[in-house]
Every structure is written in C-alpha cells, then in structure tokens.
Write a structure and sequence with these properties.
The chain is of the alpha+beta class. It has two domains: 50 residues, no CATH class; 212 residues, Bactericidal permeability-increasing protein, domain 1 (Super Roll), CATH 3.15.10.30. The chain is built from three helices and 13 strands; from the N terminus they run ββββββαβββββββαα. Strands 7, 8, 9, 10, 11, 12 and 13 form a seven-stranded antiparallel β-sheet that branches. A two-stranded antiparallel ribbon has the order 1-4. A two-stranded antiparallel ribbon has the order 2-3. Strand 7 and strand 8 form a beta hairpin.
Length: 290
C-alpha cells in the first residue's frame, strides 16, 4: 500500500520488481476517473514526462477536481469549466499556471487612430483584471472524437462585473477634447458577455494525442463601462472631473475603440495559459468513451 504523501495522488512504486529506496523513489500523478479517491494503484507507466535527465518521472493528471465528460454532454463540460475557473483563481502549479485572480498582463498599448473617437496614445502597464474567474460559462462547443482534423472550439460566458486596474500614460484627444496624464487607471465593466473562438490542432506524441492552439479571438459586449483616472492634467481637479464625465457619458463610443485592443492582449494571455494546460495532458484523458 502506498504510504501517505503531502501531495494528492502521489504514489511510491516498485518498478520492474525493484523496490526503490527513499532517494530513488519515483513520484507520479495517477490519472483517475474517480478523483475522489485519494490514492490509486497505477498499473502502467505510459504518458510519462521525464524530468531532470530521467532521474524522476512524473505522470501528469487532469487538474483536481476536474472529471471526464462524454463528448455530447455539454452540461458536464460547463460544470468542469466552472471547476477549472475556481481552481485557476489560486493557480495550478502542476501545469505551471499562476493564480489568475487577478489575471495579470504586462502591457496594453493603443496608438492614436486619426479616424476614431480616441485620437490618443495610451499605454497601460502592470495591468490587473479582477474577477475574471467569476465568469459563468453558458456554452462550450467544438470538441470532437474525430482527431483527423482541427477542432473549431467556441465558448461563451457572462461575467457580472470585471475591474481592470493599471498604471497609465495618455496623451491626445477624446472627442476633440485634449487629454493628458499619468497615474492610476480603473475601468469597471458591467455584465460582460464574452465569446471565445479558436482552432485546436491535434498533435501525436508517444501514442497519445495532445491539443495545441492557434490564435484565440475574443468578442465582447457589455452593459456599461465606468472609467476613473488619477492625476489627469497634472492633478487639475476641475479639468479631470470634466473629462471623466465626458468619457463616462460616451463610454460606448470609447469602448468600441479600446475594447478590441484589450481583447487582443487578453486573447494572447488565454492562449498562453491554454497551451500550458494542454501540453502534458493527453486529449484521451479529458473525455469518457461513449
């Protein structure tokens, strides 16, 4: 019987009838259809990722407490997506995924477009997106048993409120009014509806199939956007309040220009996270055989 270990699903095994001593013991994470079991005897050593020049071996499992679904069971997939959001809020270190609450982006940059309402140069640094993992998934479609061709995956979710915070630097014109400043920016997006779409390709390695993603396209709709910016016009209170009033009254016009820039940066981040999640877990381990 495997002895207890501080990590769930870790076993100490005798391999090829040889009992390894404490320093030689190989740790592996067992794929388990019923993840409520704390331990499970593993009978094979397939799908292993070799680490540290093969001195240790780790068997990658689906993220606890994610369970398998049938391909046609969209309700089950939505339930697992919610579990994954909850888990991802504090991070998934076994898949090298940091805590996503808040979700962090290095920079969002918008250069002035002379044909838009926002004729500005805007740089947002140290961007944090709060409540991103609180989304309610409403649809997941596109996963397939047919691995001979790419899968077109589409997912939709609703988030009651997302807050974006960053450091900012801005210069230009908004609706013919000049604006300049450097300070802290806060954007609150209410009832955000997001549609994710991507094409997933299937790669075969060591007899198993793994997903890899291309670009991820995000499309969003929202009911309201409220913007606050500190230190506009070098802290001039009257000019700052007037400009923020104009911006928030015309939020929809402004968001039409700014939202695609944010969506592109967020899509690149989501792609990065998905590739980390997919790269070690065989596609076969996500779904039950029909």
């Amino acid at each position: 019987m495997p002895k207890a270990h501080k990590y769930p699903y870790i076993l100490y095994l005798a391999i090829n009838n040889k009992r390894w001593n404490e320093q030689q013991q190989l740790e592996l994470l067992c794929v388990n259809d019923k993840l409520e079991y704390k331990y499970k005897q593993c009978s094979t050593l397939t799908n292993l990722r070799y680490l540290n020049n093969h001195t240790s071996i780790r068997f990658i499992s689906p993220v606890e407490p994610i369970t398998r679904c049938h391909f046609a069971d969209e309700k089950c997939m939505i339930e697992q997506a919610h579990k994954l959001f909850e888990k991802a809020a504090t991070g998934v270190p076994e898949n090298d995924i940091p805590a996503l609450e808040p979700l962090k982006l290095d920079k969002i940059e918008m250069l002035g477009d002379k044909n838009s309402a926002l004729k500005i140069d805007l740089i947002m640094n140290d961007v944090e997106i709060h409540n991103y993992t609180k989304a309610r998934v409403t649809s997941i479609k596109g996963f397939s048993k047919d691995l001979s061709k790419p899968m077109k995956l589409v997912s939709q979710n609703i988030n009651p409120r997302i807050t974006i915070k960053s450091k900012y630097k801005i210069n230009g014109n908004i609706l013919v009014l000049p604006i300049r400043g450097e300070g802290e920016l806060t954007m609150v997006l209410d009832n955000l509806k997001t549609r994710f779409s991507t094409t997933l390709k299937v790669e075969e390695r060591d007899g198993n199939h793994f997903l890899s993603g291309d670009t991820i396209k995000l499309e969003t709709q929202m009911d309201n956007v409220h913007i606050d910016m500190t230190n506009l016009f070098n802290g001039d209170k009257t000019l700052s309040e007037s400009m923020l009033q104009v911006m928030n009254y015309n939020w929809r016009l402004l968001s039409d220009d700014l939202t695609p820039i944010i969506n592109e940066a967020l899509g690149n981040k989501v792609k990065e996270l998905l590739l980390k999640f997919f790269k070690d877990i065989p596609y076969e381990d996500y779904f039950l055989a029909d």
